[in-house]
Amino acid sequence: MNVIKDTFFDGERPCFAAHDTRFEHVKFYPGESAVKHSQNVEAFQCEFLSKYVFWHNENVVVDDCLFTPYGRTAIWYSKNVKVLNTQVDAPKMFRECDNIFVENVKFADAQETGWNCRDIELRNVEAKKGDYFFMNARNATVENLNLQGNYSFQDAKNVVIRNSHLDSKDAFWGSENVTVYDSVIDGEFMGWHSKNLRLVNCTIRGTQALCYCKDLVLENCIMEGTDLSFEYSTVNADIISDVISVKNPAGGRIHAKAIGEIVIDEHCINPGECEITVG
């Protein structure tokens, strides 16, 4: 592998179509598309101040690097990408990528990161300002994600999340086949219009949670500050805490330690089709 080290590049496309190349201690100063259309490239302890760095690439490893706020929109339309031990201060990090592995990475500005990506693995990731984090994701496994940002995993499909904390209003809207284990989801209006959303040993916080869901499952979950929950949802829920209120569920069963108020009004579409028990 060709090694380029202890230097800098700037301007447009300085390393266009590189292949079998390792960059070590290289600074990419302002410019565009520095390593575009490349194959089999590695970056170790590099600093990126240029945007659109790794577009249309295949087989990329980024380790112990820094993407400054100027290094936005860094990895798009690429395949087989590993990002390890890296600080990302720029938004829109991934889009339209296949086979992404991200481990020990901190995103200081994760807005619009991960859109329309497929076959994703995230481990030990911290993401701030993460609005629309991994929207339209397909086939993702997530372990130990600490996310602050709304509308996360919107319209995502086939996602498994474990041991994570999502501070995220409107998480999982329109999602399908999502399972979350041993996690905290803190944010109002979560899960609306989802299909096959399953929450296991989770803590759920926020108003009007889990409405308009189809085939929703809760196992051994805690609900805190959750009022007007489950409206128009079909649900199978075992909740080990109190629930402030439940409103007009469409069908299934809900069992909770206690429910402060059950609202079944003239707008209920299937009166009596949901079994609600406490104790």
TrEMBL record:
* UniProt cross-references to Pfam families, sorted A to Z: DUF3737
Q: Which domain of life is it from?
A: Bacteria
Q: Which SUPFAM superfamilies match?
A: Pectin lyase-like (SSF51126)
- Official protein name in the record: Hydrogenase
Source species, please?
Answer: Shewanella mangrovi
